């Protein structure tokens, strides 16, 4: 039985929030994946409190420039419209769905430039999409882990 392990740490999931974990892992075999098992370990918890989350607009799934049959990136604009503070950075997780709503892949990206309250900027998520068919991926679901400067 082949076992490859992939670990991802999520810093914070807000109360009632869904988290779309999009990423990729390189397997050391060509054996097709038959199932995926997920284990969740809660490291800590705190009382529920409002968590400002930026919004995304003009999101597009683009083919790879060198291999157009596969997804190259997901891009768009991130809008810091829910927080009075500057967003210092953000970790993006993207899950891609086909027209039937089934998951076909995912990837990640980062926003590393400060984004003042009320502003927007372009984001590019370019990691992990290389094995996703560009004709299958039609709907992106983006989850964000923002970091804010308080005050």
Spell out the blueprint of helices and strands:
Elements: E1 55-63, E2 71-79, E3 87-97, E4 103-111, E5 120-125, E6 139-148
Antiparallel strand pairs: 1-2, 2-5, 3-4, 3-6
Q: Based on the structure given, which CATH architecture of the domain at 55-148 is correct?
A: Sandwich
Shape: globular
CATH class of the domain at 55-148: Mainly Beta
Structural class: mainly beta
- The side-by-side strand order for the widest beta sheet comes to 1-2-5
Q: Distance N terminus to C terminus?
A: 53 Å
Q: Which range best describes the helical content: under 10%, 10-25%, 25-40%, 40-55%, 55-70% or over 70%? A: under 10%
Q: How many beta-strand elements? A: 6
Find the CATH superfamily of the domain at 55-148: Immunoglobulins
Sheet with the most strands, sense and barrel status? 3 strands, antiparallel
Rg from alpha-carbon coordinates: 17 Å
Could you tell me the mean pLDDT?
86
Total helical elements:
0
CATH fold call of the domain at 55-148: Immunoglobulin-like
Explained architecture:
By secondary structure, this protein is an all-beta fold. 0% of the residues lie in helices and 36% in strands. The protein has a domain at 55-148: Immunoglobulins (Immunoglobulin-like), CATH 2.60.40. The strands form 2 sheets. Strands 1-2-5 form a 3-stranded antiparallel beta sheet, with no helix packed on it. A 3-stranded antiparallel beta sheet has the order 4-3-6, with no helix packed on it. A hairpin with a 7-residue loop joins strand 1 and strand 2 (71-79). The N and C termini lie far apart (53 Å).
